[in-house]
Write a structure and sequence with these properties.
Length: about 675
């Protein structure tokens, strides 16, 4: 394990090696003995004792405070050196490298930005490349100094030395903006025909960058990307692929005719026709394969003709990538994604499902995650392919890896049907009981409710499942789930005998649940409503006894105090049912005390309900029965939109001088007019 100090030292050493060693590489590539001599001299001059002392001190720092102290001293010293009128240009390259260290380690090096910009005009190749590198690191596309390097870049793009051209292209990729694109676009376009493949590649990358910054500026050059796709050098072709991928994602239709070309390129790569330098762990150009697969997925979506051209090469690519280590697994995953995105092929999807089975059953969590992700795509196309992997997927739900459990939940939700809903919901309930994350619990509760409502084999199973959900995850249950369960119990299935049996079973189950010492609020809400509507169906218990059960729960259950209003209404319904059936009229003793306690409650809802119940219980049995009818929970309520029933009341109020009703907007306008009048008087 690398310590923070060692990590900083390693990073600094890598940057130093890259910057110092760059001169040596440049010397071997530059043309002419004189330039090689100059580059070697430049590399030697970079290796000053002070430079290596800074690197060593940074590596030996034991904490950030020591590092900051070193960098502050270094910044002050560089500020003094660069401000000197007798600046030694032979050491300017080293100073720029040291400035980059200051900037990378979080300190202000803005005093040296102008020196980096000026150094881009130097003729020394090593210094010019370091200056371009420093400028690209120091500045961004909106910096005021950008305007100063445009002319230098234009000149360097015409340089005979391709290394200078590459340095300029790299810099404009980093610093280009919409205003500077027109100044360099013609020269970059000309470089697409440069004899050096490295320059052609960077020119394509620059045009790609222009497209991302200002798509309209290179809209007329989209054909150039097609041309570079046929370049004899694979690196140039790969750069063109990246640009074409962005264009295809934006609008695939104009590029449909390129499908044969992309298929041909992928076939050549799979057949090892590219140079061995592009192999990675003996896999031919895996990054190009992945990019091509993404392009084919975008072009083949909902296009049967284009997809049929891809089936053969996708199958070959999938077969050759298997058992090729991690990089092969990445290609297999991308093949599966492509196969599940394009117009489906039964044979290809079967091949993909077989390849994915190795991932799902792997002991590696990373491969399991990839397998679950791949299987999700296949399930969206054809759920039948997930049947053989169902138990392996369910087992992933008990894995300690949280991200893996989350992905497993997503897949289980997608693969659930009527024939397996009981097994999957049972596993999801077990997972919910152990889950601690609030967001994950809420999502799991929502998904169980959706699956139970969509695929429930019977109403009884649905009610039992939702009761268990409320008992385990009542703290995250949404009101919609509560209302759905109440509605199902109230409306029933339409079969009177079955509905009566269901409601009696529900009332009996909820009466048993009330004996538990602690129930969640969501479940209590369902229990109170159900017993208020159907408590009279309990055998061996009178309505008065059911009222007492509810009142006892309101006293003992921690969450029931918030449901006092619902409890009073439930007791009133039970009293109305008893009166209508000739039983003992009125509330039980405990219910009466509950109502009396809430007559003067600070909660308006509780106080109003208590007073309404008191007055209602004094009325005749017919009035009580009409106000609280039996088994009316699922019936529609007639609403008088015209409010004709209160027209007489409104007229009497008008006669007594009551003001007309005004909408909120009318009141707001009147208030605004009053304020304006007040300001006018002032």
């Amino acid at each position: 394990t690398c310590t923070p100090r060692r990590a900083r030292a390693t990073a600094a050493s890598r940057v130093r090696s890259r910057l110092v060693g760059m001169s040596r590489n440049n010397g071997s590539a530059a043309s002419g003995p004189e330039k090689r001599k100059d580059l070697a001299a430049g590399a030697h001059k970079t290796k000053s004792r002070e430079f290596y002392d800074i690197i060593r001190q940074i590596g030996e720092c034991k904490n950030k405070t020591d590092e900051d102290a070193i960098m502050r001293r270094e910044a002050m010293m560089l500020r003094t050196i660069l401000a000197s009128p007798k600046l030694d240009k032979d050491k300017l390259k080293e100073y720029l490298i040291r400035l980059m260290y200051v900037e990378m380690l979080g300190h202000d090096a803005s005093f040296g930005y102008i020196h980096a910009v000026k150094a881009t005009t130097e003729h020394d190749l090593a210094l010019k490349r370091v200056a371009y590198l420093a400028t690209a690191q120091f500045l961004d596309e909106h910096h005021d100094l950008i305007i100063l390097i445009v002319n230098t870049v234009q000149q360097d793009l015409k340089d005979d030395n391709y290394l200078v051209v590459c340095a300029a292209l790299t810099t404009i990729c980093r610093l280009v903006n919409e205003d500077t694109i027109p100044a360099v676009l013609p020269q970059v376009t000309e470089l697409l025909n440069h004899p050096k493949e490295h320059v052609r590649k960077k020119a394509v990358m620059a045009l790609h960058r222009f497209h991302r910054r200002a798509p309209a500026s290179v809209e007329h050059l989209h054909g150039k990307f097609r041309q570079m796709l046929c370049d004899k050098d694979p690196s140039v072709m790969s750069a063109a692929l990246c640009a074409l991928y962005d264009l295809i994602v934006d609008d695939p239709k104009p590029h449909k005719n390129l499908v044969p070309s992309f298929v041909s390129i992928l076939k050549q790569i799979v057949e090892h026709r590219l140079p061995k330098a592009y192999d990675y762990h003996r896999v031919p150009a895996p990054f190009l394969q992945v990019k091509l697969l993404k392009i084919l997925a975008a072009l083949g979506a909902a296009d049967k003709a284009a997809s049929e051209e891809m089936y053969s090469v996708l199958s070959t690519c999938l077969k050759k990538a298997e058992n090729s280590g991690n990089v092969g697994n990445a290609i297999v995953y991308e093949c599966v994604r492509t196969a599940s995105t394009i117009y489906p092929s039964a044979a290809l999807l079967e091949h993909c499902a077989a390849a994915v089975s190795r991932f799902v059953s792997s002991p590696s969590n990373n491969l399991k995650y990839v397998g679950l992700e791949s299987l999700s795509g296949i399930v969206n196309v054809n759920p039948a392919h997930a049947a053989e992997h169902q138990m392996a997927v369910v087992d992933c739900l008990t894995d300690p890896d949280e991200s893996l459990r989350k992905k497993t939940l997503d897949l289980m939700y997608a693969m659930t049907k009527s024939h397996n809903v009981e097994v999957i919901v049972e596993k999801m309930l077990a997972f919910l009981a152990d889950a601690q994350d609030a967001h994950l619990r809420e999502e799991t509760v929502t998904r169980i409710g959706t699956l139970a409502e969509r695929y429930a084999p019977s109403t009884q199973w649905f009610i039992e499942t939702m009761n268990e959900v409320f008992a385990i995850g009542g703290d995250v249950v949404k009101p919609r789930a509560i209302n759905n369960l109440m509605r199902l119990i109230g409306e029933g299935s339409g079969d009177d005998d079955a509905d009566a049996s269901l409601r009696a079973d529900a009332a009996r189950a909820y009466a048993e649940l009330l004996r538990k010492p602690k129930l969640p609020k969501a479940l209590l809400e369902v229990i109170v409503w159900t017993l208020g509507e159907y408590g009279g169906l309990l055998t061996g218990k009178s309505n008065l006894e059911v009222m007492d059960m509810l009142c006892d729960a309101a006293e003992t259950q921690p969450e029931a105090r918030a449901l006092a209003a619902q409890t009073m209404t439930a007791c009133a319904k039970l009293a109305a049912q008893a009166t209508a059936s000739g039983g003992a009229p009125g509330l039980s003793e405990k219910a009466s005390r509950l109502v009396e306690r809430n007559l003067n409650s600070e909660d308006v809802d509780k106080s109003q309900r208590a007073r309404e119940i008191v007055h209602l219980m004094r009325e005749d049995a017919s009035v009580v029965a009409a106000a609280l009818p039996r088994d009316a929970g699922g019936e529609d309520v007639d609403v008088d939109a015209a409010t004709t029933s209160i027209e007489a009341y409104v007229n009497r109020a008008r006669q007594r001088g009551a003001a007309e009703y005004r909408t909120e907007s009318e009141r707001a306008r009147e208030s605004e007019r009053a304020r304006e009048s007040e300001r006018a008087r002032e």
